Amino acid sequence: MDQGTATHCPYCALQCGMWLRPDASGRVTVAPRDVPGSGGGLCRKGWTATDLLTSGRRLTTPLVRRGPGRPLEEAGWEEALDRVAAGIEEIQRASGRDAVAVFGGGGLTNEKAYLLGKFARVALGTANIDYNGRFCMSSAAAAGLRAFGLDRGLPFPLTDVGRARAVLLAGANPAETMPPFVRHLDAQRAAGGSLIVVDPRRTATAARATLHLRPVPGTDLALANGLLHIAVAEGLVDERYVAERTRGFPAVREAVATYWPEHVERITGVPVTDQYRAVRLLAEAPRALVLTARGAEQHSNGTDTVSAFVNLALALGLPGREGSGYGCLTGQGNGQGGREHGQKADQLPGYRRIDDPGARAHVARVWDVPADSLPGPGVSAHELIGSLGTPGGPRGLLVFGSNPVVSAPNANLAERRLRGLDLLVVSDPVLSETAELADVVLPSAQWAEEDGTMTNLEGRVIRRRRALPAPPGVRTDLWIITELSRRLGRPTGFSAEPAEVFEELRRASADGPADYSGISYERIDDEGGVFWPSPAAAAGQDACDDGAGTPRMFLDAFAHPDGKARFVAVQHRPAAEEPDARYPLHLTTGRIMQHYQSGAQTRRIPALTAEASGPYVEIHPDLAARHGIAAGDRVRLVSRRGTAEADARITAAVPPDTLFMPFHWGGAGRANSLVGDALDPVSRMPEFKVSAVRLERVA
To answer: Which among 37, 108, 165, 353 could disulfide-bond with 158, CB atoms 3.0 to 4.6 Å apart, if both were Cys?
Structure first.
């Protein structure tokens, strides 16, 4: 029996395998497919992922706003694209190339991310391009680059998690955000391993832990430094590994000298005995992993926080050792590949730096343009959004695969900036909150209606396959980019065919840090995915039990010129905004099982909204009692930037001084209306995880 089309889930970076089979009525059925890493598992979102394909709530015709204050009206593709091209040309004629900006997404295929970056630099000639992955993994990427010389979320296969005898998981709740991942944690525990979870909340993941460390929000860096202090004091540092494979440890040893356990307990609230136990569980395990995610990374000191956890891993001799290491759990479906091929402000394809003359020359040859015609680096996502419509800032914006009205920090400001543009163009399968503000909306194909590649959280490049045609009137993002390029005077150099774009991506990435030149669609099909880097010369020569390419990185050397990893001395500093008399509570935000990112897709799936229909706030029972709040009451959170309303959930899962709110909703329940815009100085990551708020009961 034909199982259908082999593809992957459209949501998180786990990229679980699935079979899709359309029936005679046009409905598409889902069946799990066993793939490396995620096995045959699917979460609630995966099982319902096809519901939106045939939903009446998706867009099937372009929409245009035919005048200021006018509503969006249906239009043909010629009119819509002509309006976009004319608007771009008018803005750039009056204000220069950089007056038009591009904002991409970590859910775009590698092909779309690549072509979007090329479109910005070649067709538009603008430096102003960034993407929502800046809000996701940028701090871990920056820390990984300075420690190892290269950033790949997991530099080892995901199956290593199940084999580890100790895992420290900082700021992640995969039991809700990527449930099939939990099979590896369960395997690890079943084999006698230990799981240490660092999280202020008692999450579904923390409930599985051998040891749950609950730091005060914003104090993860102090905790990591304190754990390293204990490792040094207890003689648990792998001195031979440190001497042979690293540089910079003396400065770090000195930096953590003052983080004695009692001092760390006063900062973080984590008991001294738990600190000692965590270090010993890691140090005594024959194979151990240190993993971070958004809870540790989405801070104004996020890069330094990740560096502190990397320092701990290096001191224990974990990275570059089979079965052990440091890794980051990527969030978005193509969060890894999405930042490797050019939609990030400072990068060109292959994870090349845009200010590197050699990188510019190589990519320019592939693109057949003069190297000096390529713009320089632009600004980060939040800085880009904040500059929209301001004097000297971009006056036009094209958005692909993102919904910044809901997902951006200080969302009230972001919405005002978008409303103030001369031209806002959104390509999306649905009328998201951002699309509702647009001058032109272009209906794009969904994941099951197009081919392409994704790069999952372990760096494995996999195939997304077309299972059914897009509805009449819908076009792919590649087609849209190609047609706009043609209208802007670039009739060649752009293709709507994913296979052709990938072949060019291979050449553009060749010899770069993220080298895809040895990867092809055929090789992915034959080998079940290929780990990058995979140089062309090595194709067919580097297969192993876990897949092809480079499943485990750094076994022989790190990516710095001398082959050694770098310790980086870091110091704890408070969050940019701490509670005070007016705003006495911590607010932290995150995801829940039923919804994904801004909720633009999942909030349109009835089965998911039936389970989680609207925003809520988790409140500790003692705090609720002081405010006279009962379960289900409407409450208001107020910060220095705005307000949000939601229903109260009373639970001891949160500390008495901390509130938790999911960020999947817009409107009055938009959590990011409360979030500040302090940025990490290295990664430019906004501080999503700690905001000072007050709590009010809505009468």
So the answer is: 37
Q: Tens of pLDDT along 261-295?
A: 999 999 999 999 999 999 999 999 999 999 999 99
The two tokens of residue 653 are 């899962």
In angstroms, the CA 477 to CA 401 distance is: 9
User: Bridge partners of 427?
Assistant: 400, 442
* Structure tokens given for 597: 């990112």
Report how far residue 477's alpha carbon sits from residue 108's, in angstroms, rounded to the nearest whole number. Answer: 9
Q: For residue 542, what are its two tokens?
A: 């580097």
126-171 confidence digits (pLDDT tens) = 999 999 989 988 999 999 999 999 999 999 999 999 999 999 999 9
Helix intervals (H) in 420-531:
477-487, 498-509, 521-527
Whole-Å CA distances, 523 to 126, 474, 501, 527, 651: 35, 30, 16, 6, 50
Residue of 670, 669, 676, 668 whose CA lies nearest to 693: 676
Q: How is residue 230 annotated by DSSP?
A: H
Nearest to 448 by CA among 59, 31, 50: 50
Question: What are the tens digits of pLDDT across the range 546-584?
Answer: 447 899 999 999 999 999 999 999 999 999 999 999 999
**How far is residue 493's CA from residue 509's CA, in Å, rounded to a whole number?**
16
Name the helix (H) or strand (E) containing 290: strand 288-292
User: Which residue matches tokens 């819908």?
Assistant: 474
Q: Quote the DSSP letter at residue 583.
A: S
Backbone φ and ψ for 400, nearest 5 degrees, come out as -125, 120
| pLDDT score recorded for residue 37 | 83
Tokens of 466: 């077309």
8-state DSSP, 337 = G
CA dist list (Å): 509 to 337, 342, 442, 453: 12, 10, 30, 15
Alpha helices in 628-677 (DSSP H): none
| 693 and 587 Cβ atoms separated by less than 8 Å | yes
**Contact between 335 and 15 (Cβ < 8 Å):** no
Burial of 23: CB neighbours in 10 Å, binned 0-12, 13-18, 19+: exposed
Q: SS3 string of 397-437?
A: EEEECCCHHHHCCCHHHHHHHHHCCCEEEEEECECCCCHHH
∠ CA 44-49-55, nearest 5°, is 125
Instruction: Count other C-beta atoms under 10 Å from residue 365's C-beta.
Output: 12
How many C-alpha atoms does 112 have within 13 Å on its Cβ side? 32
3-state SS assignment for residue 163: helix
Q: What is the DSSP letter of 215?
A: P
